Structure formats: structure tokens, C-alpha cells
Automatic annotation (TrEMBL):
Keywords: Oxidoreductase. Pfam families: adh_short_C2 (PF13561). This is NAD(P)-dependent dehydrogenase, short-chain alcohol dehydrogenase family. SUPFAM superfamilies: NAD(P)-binding Rossmann-fold domains (SSF51735). Residues 1-32 are annotated as: Disordered. The keyword Oxidoreductase applies. It comes from Microlunatus antarcticus. Belongs to the short-chain dehydrogenases/reductases (SDR) family. The lineage of its organism: Bacteria, Bacillati, Actinomycetota, Actinomycetes, Propionibacteriales. Gene3D superfamilies: NAD(P)-binding Rossmann-like Domain. One of its GO terms (molecular function) is oxidoreductase activity, acting on CH-OH group of donors. The keyword Oxidoreductase applies. NCBIfam families: PRK07231.1. Residues 1-11 have a biased composition (Polar residues).
Length: 292
């Protein structure tokens, strides 16, 4: 097998573009790699039952593809306007033979977020993997211009939905289950234009470290993945200032943006018993940016 140089493994040619949020993977140019053509499972999650949020596009799509190919049945949550992306995910894993359930819903509403969990439990016949990837990120240069509505929606999507969904899931999660939250390098190295978003990611890290200790004695492991700059709809729908997009990821030690496909294995690892002694950890997948 020939060695792969991570510097040149993926082209780094982000382009300035703008879509209205939440955006679609199918309109991203260049297209992102979610592992559709490359991820090969090796039976690491056979028989597992997973709910993945943000599963239509970006990192969540890569996770959903990997989980299904590892043998898990997967419930996909996403916003109703993202239905066409979610259908592409179902098509990408159709050969896995696993049960794939679509649960479109807006997680900023408490009752709706809780119902996504109970629907997943019902339709999958149980639940042992809760993987929260959904997120909202809108860049605003000046604090004075962050509206209360944006602040509220960002915290509802990134923090409150996590709390509601984990609380709702816990009575259903047997020992051996895993909860995986999605933070960001922004939790440690916040950008000046992402005050609200970056602070939600700090909250997710700390929430997860506290909860991990509470749930470990019950045999439920809580861990976190913290990506760096990854090419997804989030970034071209206001997550970054549009003028910054053509250098997206260049300031990492690897000198390029990441692809969703490069995130999936970390989630598989944290979901599987291979990580049985890993609790309250944050795995940083960020191209080499230093973290605490
Ligand atoms: P993405 O746009 O592909 O995924 C975000 C998803 O969040 C959307 O597809 C949507 O389904 C979901 N979502 C947003 N608001 C929602 C709501 N109200 N209800 C239900 N679902 C909602 O982008 P992504 O980059 O793959 O983002 C996934 C996660 O990764 C986010 O938590 C993000 O903060 C995190 N992250 C991304 C990067 C990056 O550079 N792309 C870096 C660090 C962390
Ligand atoms: Mg999406």
C-alpha cells in the first residue's frame, strides 16, 4: 500500500459562494467528500441503533454513511428543507442493507426535539448511539449586530437541543451505549466574528465532561469530536464571511481545509467498544491546530 500524504490527500480549492442557511450539500462547489465512494465498513457497529442529527450533509452525512456501513441501523434527523440531501444519504447507504429512518424536524423547539428521540427509539426498536452533529453558525463582525433572535437560535440549536435530546434518550439507553457531541476548535481558539457560536462549543465541551462522569458508572460513555475547518454547507451559508472562503483552512498546519469524510472514523471509534476506556474525551480533528 502506498503512503498517503495528508497535506495533498485532498485538494484545497474552496471557492467564494453564498447559499441561504441551512444550505445544501448538493449545491456546494467544489463538492464535499462524505466517504460515499470510499468508506468501507468492517462490522464495528453491527446491530447498533443510532440517531444522528445534522445527518443530511457535511460531517453528519459522513457519520451516517460510516455507521450504516459498519452495520448500524440509523435514524437521520435534519431540517425539512434539507430533504433532497437526506435522500442522497439514504441512496448512499442503500447497499448496506441496514434500516435507515428519516426524521426531519427543527430541533430549536423542545417538544419537537424530544419527539425526534422517541420516534427514533420507536422506529429503530431501541437506541444505543446518540450522535449530535446539528449546529448553527452565523458570522457577525460586531457584537452590537448579533440579534437576540440569532443568539437564541444558536444556543437552542447547539446547546439546548443537546440537553433536551440527551435527557429524553437516557431512559432508553442501555449500558454499552455511547453519546457523541460535536464541538469545534472554536471552543479553544474562538474567531472574533463567532462570539455566540464559539461560546456554544465551549459549553458543549464542558457539558460533556461533566455528564461523562455522571453516566460512566451506568456504562454510558459521553465523548466529543471537535473538528477544525471542514468543507460543508455550514461555512457557505454565513458561517464564514464570504470573502474569507477562498482561503478556508489554509491557516492550519496541514495548510488545507478538511473533508467530512476525514471526520467519520473518529465517531465510529467513539461509538464502538474499541474506545471502551475513553470517557469525557474531546478528539480534535483540525489539521494540527494546538488545543489544550
Ligand atoms: P452542515 O451544514 O452540513 O450540518 C449542520 C446541520 O445542522 C444541517 O445539515 C442541519 O441539518 C442541522 N441543523 C441546523 N439547524 C437545525 C435545526 N434548527 N434543527 C435541526 N437541525 C438543524 O455543516 P457541518 O459543518 O457538517 O456541521 C456539523 C457540525 O459540525 C456542527 O455542529 C458544527 O458546529 C460542527 N463543526 C463544523 C465545522 C466546519 O468547519 N464545518 C468545524 C467545527 C465544528
Ligand atoms: Mg444540511
Amino acid at each position: 500500500m502506498s503512503l498517503i500524504n495528508p497535506v495533498t490527500q485532498y485538494p484545497s480549492d474552496p471557492k467564494k459562494q453564498k447559499q441561504p442557511a441551512p444550505g445544501l450539500a448538493e449545491d456546494l462547489a467544489p463538492a464535499a467528500d462524505h466517504g460515499e465512494g470510499s468508506y468501507v465498513g468492517s462490522a464495528k457497529l453491527v446491530g447498533r441503533r443510532a440517531l444522528v442529527t445534522g445527518a443530511d450533509s457535511g460531517i453528519g452525512r459522513a457519520v451516517a454513511i460510516a455507521f450504516a456501513r459498519e452495520g448500524a441501523d440509523v435514524a437521520l434527523n435534519y431540517l425539512p428543507v434539507e430533504q433532497s440531501d437526506a435522500d442522497d444519504v439514504v441512496a448512499a447507504v442503500s447497499e448496506s442493507g441496514r434500516k435507515i429512518v428519516q426524521l426531519p424536524a427543527d430541533l430549536t423547539d423542545e417538544a419537537t426535539a424530544r419527539k425526534v428521540v422517541t420516534d427514533a427509539v420507536e422506529q429503530l426498536g431501541g437506541l444505543d448511539l446518540l450522535v449530535l452533529v446539528a449546529g448553527k453558525q452565523q458570522a457577525v463582525e460586531d457584537l452590537a449586530d448579533i440579534t437576540s433572535e440569532q443568539f437564541d437560535q444558536t444556543y437552542k440549536t447547539n446547546v439546548y437541543a443537546m440537553f433536551w435530546m440527551i435527557q429524553e434518550a437516557l431512559p432508553h439507553l442501555p449500558a454499552g451505549s455511547a453519546i457523541i457531541n460535536t464541538s469545534s476548535v472554536q471552543a479553544y481558539s474562538p474567531s472574533p466574528h463567532l462570539v455566540d457560536y464559539a461560546s456554544t462549543k465551549g459549553a458543549i465541551n464542558t457539558f460533556s465532561k461533566a455528564l461523562a462522569q455522571q453516566l460512566a458508572p451506568k456504562g454510558i460513555r459521553v465523548n466529543v469530536v471537535a473538528p477544525g475547518p471542514v468543507w460543508t454547507p455550514l461555512q457557505v451559508t454565513g458561517g464564514q464571511p464570504t470573502e474569507a472562503l477562498d482561503s478556508f483552512g489554509e491557516d492550519t498546519p496541514l495548510g488545507r481545509m478538511g473533508q467530512p469524510a476525514e471526520m467519520a472514523a473518529a465517531y465510529v471509534y467513539l461509538a464502538s467498544p474499541e474506545s471502551s476506556y475513553v470517557v469525557g474525551e474531546t478528539l480534535n480533528l483540525n489539521g494540527g491546530m494546538p488545543t489544550p
